[in-house]
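Input chain follows. Return structure tokens only.
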Amino acid sequence: SNTMEIINLKKDYLLKKKLPNSVKKAIIKKFEESGILKFPNFSSSNKSVINFIDQFTYQYANDASRRETRFENKKIRNVDSGKQEIFLHSETSFSPSQPEIVWFYCVNPGKRNSGQTVYCDGLELWQKLPAHYKFFFLENPIRFKLKIPITKKLKGRHKKKWFLEYPGVSNCYLNYASNCLEFEFSKFAVEKARITNKFSFANHLIIPLISEPQILSRKVGKDKLLSLREHNQIKKIAYSLTHDICWKKNDLVMIDNYRFMHGRRKIDINDNIRDIVTMQTLKANFGYGNNF
């Protein structure tokens, strides 16, 4: 089902520093239920956009430093550059800094049928996976080998054992020569969803590694690894459940990053005006099951 909920907010709410409590509660309730909300023609003021997102955010994510900041605000970043297709993924789900909520704001939708943002509901995908895949993914985590660049210049030589306090992290080192944090990270492709007793298949399995320079390797399975044929079958099922976001100027979209995967279709070679920016809430300021 196409689960995106459309919420039209009164413009005077956006001029206030704080949303009325009842409005905020109603937005959270809708978000918990559907996991993806669109606020059409939200505002042309990036100040209003950030002020709105602040009201749902406890802590922002340190988004990939490869992305340029926008509007002189380090919370707002460009989406990945280039015009290539970006396959479905849950943002930064290969590392401990996976954001809870990903926000997209449309500065300019670009040419028609060019570079549409797409999304796939991980709840639906998990239900549609054949039983043998479910057995496999409940038993086998994905194992990533990572090299995360550090923006601050490190002083020192060689490597130093580093303590990164997060379940699934192993062999963690600070590499002074490459100015990177290097570690291995294991996590399951399926996770508990915000909705009680539901599970979501939202992860970093479908996207090719060429799109993610920070991932050196990705393996699933202990004895029996996931084959290319199986990988393609999962991708096929995911794309059969994928929907497009039809952008209009100043639209804002709020996505549950633990439930949904997102991506984009190829951008038309002559489309130089498409402009979507992103903000990432590492931790929301409302708990799971807030409205259930």
